[in-house]
């Protein structure tokens, strides 16, 4: 409006004020300003939305890491407590065997120190650890506890949370009786769809079990936090079966 009045006052370029032209120009200018303002507000709001999403993702990652750290901190004391209980009873029964048990325990803890700081480890590493852990069980129980591993090399590069297999094996030993003439048999195998199956024959202890139930809850919670398929737990009259998904490296 001011521009038109000045142009009309001094007749710049021969301009003469025209009411019809004035309203047309005013409408075009208002429309243009509305469009530009809307575009600016759209991109400003979009950027704020993106910033909010990124901030939420960062907070979710921090929360996930915190929760995983809490779960991992539960594992070591739980494992150590049960190992020391076994060692305590073994010292009075057979001191020489107790010394061998300590040697094997040190090998196991070497793995714990190296891998329990990670969210995931390769299945091949976990199986190597289980072989060492099986030595502890053999030292303590002899042939009363047997572990059979049948996992093809084709899935060795898949990943699982560290100590998953140890927790499941420990759970089987804790809750079942094991005798020389009726051994506890724990089988670890992988199926064609990249799921790991851990099962044992049921010989339930009827008394003397003090369970904090950390093991299975720990595993299920880890897979939930990692946004992986649910861990399946099944009990039949003869067997206890846990099926866990193997995690491909590309999925993380």
Describe the 3D structure:
The structure is a single chain. With 252 residues, the protein is of the alpha+beta class. It is built from six helices and seven strands; from the N terminus they run H-H-H-E-H-E-E-H-E-E-H-E-E. It has a five-stranded mixed β-sheet with strand order 2-4-5-7-6. A two-stranded antiparallel sheet has the order 1-3. Strand 6 (232-235) and strand 7 form a beta hairpin. Helix 2 runs antiparallel to helix 6 (214-225). It is rod-shaped, with a radius of gyration of 34 Å. The model has no long low-confidence stretch (mean pLDDT 84).
SS summary, helix count:
6
Reported for the largest beta sheet, the result is: 5 strands, mixed
The first-to-last residue Cα distance is 61 Å
Gyration radius, in Å: 34 Å
Overall pLDDT score: 84
Low-confidence stretches: none
Q: Provide the β-strand percentage band.
A: 5-15%
Helical proportion, percent range: 55-70%
Instruction: Tell the overall outline.
Output: rod-shaped
**Series of secondary-structure elements, N-terminal to C-terminal:** HHHEHEEHEEHEE
SS-based class: alpha+beta
- Total strands: 7
Strand order of the largest sheet: 2-4-5-7-6
Brief descriptors of the model:
single chain; 252 residues; alpha+beta; 6 helices; 59% helix; rod-shaped
Outline the fold blueprint.
Layout (H helix, E strand, L loop, with lengths): L1 H9 L8 H75 L1 H21 L5 E2 H19 L3 E6 L8 E2 L3 H12 L8 E7 L4 E7 L12 H12 L6 E4 L3 E7 L7
Parallel strand pairs: 2-4
Antiparallel strand pairs: 1-3, 4-5, 5-7, 6-7
Helix pairs in contact: 2-3, 2-6, 3-4
């Amino acid at each position: 409006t001011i521009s038109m009045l000045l142009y009309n006052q001094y007749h710049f370029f021969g301009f003469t004020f025209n009411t019809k032209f004035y309203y047309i120009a005013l409408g075009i200018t208002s429309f243009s300003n509305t469009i530009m303002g809307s575009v600016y507000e759209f991109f400003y709001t979009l950027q704020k939305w993106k910033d909010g999403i990124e901030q939420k993702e960062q907070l979710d990652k921090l929360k996930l890491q915190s929760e995983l750290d809490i779960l991992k901190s539960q594992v070591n004391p739980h494992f150590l407590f049960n190992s020391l209980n076994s060692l305590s009873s073994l010292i009075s029964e057979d001191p020489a065997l107790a010394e061998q048990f300590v040697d094997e325990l040190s090998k196991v803890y070497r793995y714990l120190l190296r891998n329990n700081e990670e969210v995931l480890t390769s299945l091949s590493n976990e199986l190597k650890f289980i072989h060492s852990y099986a030595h502890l069980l053999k030292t303590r129980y002899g042939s009363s506890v047997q572990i059979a591993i049948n996992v093809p090399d084709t899935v060795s590069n898949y990943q699982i949370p560290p100590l998953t297999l140890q927790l499941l094996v420990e759970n089987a030993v804790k809750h079942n009786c094991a005798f020389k003439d009726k051994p506890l048999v724990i089988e670890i195998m992988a199926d064609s769809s990249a799921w790991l199956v851990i099962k044992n024959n049921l010989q339930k202890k009827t008394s003397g079990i003090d369970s904090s139930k950390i093991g299975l809850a720990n595993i299920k919670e880890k897979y939930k936090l990692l946004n992986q398929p649910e861990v399946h737990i099944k009990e039949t009259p003869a067997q206890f079966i846990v099926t866990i998904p193997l995690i491909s490296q590309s999925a993380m």
